[in-house]
Amino acid sequence: MKEIEANQLEEKVNKKDEVNIIDVREDEEVAEGMIPGAKHIRLSEVPERLDELDKDKHYYMVCRSGGRSGKASQFLEENGYDVTNVAGGMLAWDGDVEKPS
Q: Domain Rhodanese: where (predicted)?
């Protein structure tokens, strides 16, 4: 499984690179703030929401500490998706966050 450090992903976000971020945390965690532009799909919903993901795109998976996003990354890889897990998750994220509307 591919991994990226949170600060490396932050650099990509700050440079306005095209990044597709999926946040697999629970609703109450996301309510505290998420990476701007990230899409929220709870880990438990990933299998039933595969139709929302494009196999031709690359996704960065994030959770609180990297464990749940690692499970999501593994599942998505097994189903033919190009994904990278964000090591350390939101605990390691020092960049901007936005509150979901």
A: 15-99
